[in-house]
UniProtKB/TrEMBL annotation:
Organism: Fusobacterium necrogenes
Boundaries of every N-acetyltransferase domain copy: 1-42
Pfam family, one: Acetyltransf_3
Name of the featured protein: N-acetyltransferase domain-containing protein
Transmembrane segments: none
GO molecular function, one term: acyltransferase activity, transferring groups other than amino-acyl groups
Amino acid sequence: MTQATEKVYELAFEQLDIIKIMATTFKDNIDSRRVIEKNGFKLEGIREKSI
């Protein structure tokens, strides 16, 4: 996780009282999904036929 990502999490969860941060990628964009997962996100589902 990068320092910038850690600061964003700290700001969001500790100072802004945010409960959840969501990130999305296109279904076939595996590289982007890996980057998101390396930053602590977990796959909750896949939206079919959406734009």
